Amino acid sequence: MFALTFFWIWSLPLLIIGVFFAVPFALLALPVCLAMTLALQIQSNNKIIVDHWFRKWMSHIPWHEWFPCNQLHFDEQCIVTVHPHGILCCGAVVGVHLVPGSKTVLCVAPILFYVPVIGWLLRLLACIPANKECMQGALRAGHSLLVVPGGVPEIVLAETGDDTKRFARYGFMRLKPSVPVHVVCVRGECKTYHMFQGPFLDTRVWLSWRLNVPFVMPVLFGWYGTWLPRRRPLILTSWEVQPVTRAAYDKILDKLFDLT
Q1: Cα→Cα distances 51→40, 55, 107, 192, 205, Å
Q2: CB of 187 within 8 A of CB of 235?
């Protein structure tokens, strides 16, 4: 206890000094980052980059071994939907997208493209905004879509730690896909982080859907309390949806959760 107290007292002045010098730098960097972000968005003009060397390099890093997590391959053009969303969509990213040879295009929240650094790299990682125009354009260009339909509301549901809880959304069906649709269940996704469970869950889920903002306690406990996901096994199972209707989709998803 004495050692911890001494370390805290010793490090506090360094923290204060760091904050004092970091704030002016952040204020100066903010307009520069915003300008770079807007310029990149205008220059990209909804381009889809599937085979960039950065994605290939990232795909050859064995991220899946961290959990561990099995990987799925989809060779033909298709739409792949993944449940549940969880916090970081670990199963979708390391089990389907960042897999050697994968040609999927990951649909993410459009606002992420305006986040400094992260937004600059998303297109290099074969990501596109999750809106109808961009998704239809990707399908017309012959790309496979990787979609996590639960979105922000399922971030709120992740605090329950229950993978079977989902927010039913079928926006991808409005694309009227003429390609196969595969649904993927990720068992263990909601165990990658521990979150505080707050009251009024249903209300917060509804507000998150309406405002596209996750109403959760902004405290995450991952691996040893860090922001890294916990090393919990992720099990991915998939099934093709035929016919592509809501009833068939829900039935297959329930079956996959029962299997895992």
Answers
A1: 19, 7, 16, 29, 36
A2: yes
Q: Could you report how far apart the first and last alpha carbons of the chain are, in Å?
A: 44
Contact 72, 236 (CB under 8 A): yes
For the record, the structure tokens of 132 come out as 């109808």
pLDDT tens column, 188-197: 999 999 999 9
Token pair for residue 169? 């959304």
pLDDT value at position 19? 64
Task: Please provide residue 181's backbone torsions phi and psi, each rounded to the nearest 5 degrees.
Answer: -120, 125
Dmax (CA) of the chain: 67
What is the C-alpha R_g of the chain? 20
Q: What is the spatial distance between Cα 127 and Cα 112, in angstroms, rounded to a whole number?
A: 10
Q: State the Cα–Cα distance between residues 99 and 31, nearest whole angstrom.
A: 36
What burial class does residue 57 get, using C-beta atoms within 10 Å of its C-beta: 0-12 exposed, 13-18 middle, 19+ buried? exposed
- Phi and psi at residue 239, to the nearest 5°: -155, 140
Give the SS3 label for residue 38: helix
Neighbours of 16 (CB within 10 A): 9
Give the number of other Cβ atoms within 10 Å of residue 143's Cβ: 19
Q: Alpha-carbon distance 109 to 88, whole Å?
A: 12
In the chain, the amino acid numbered 148 is V
For residue 217, how many other CB atoms are within 10 A of its CB? 10
Q: How confident is the model at residue 177 (pLDDT cuts 50, 70, 90)?
A: confident
pLDDT 10s digits, 210-241? 998 899 988 889 998 888 999 999 999 999 99
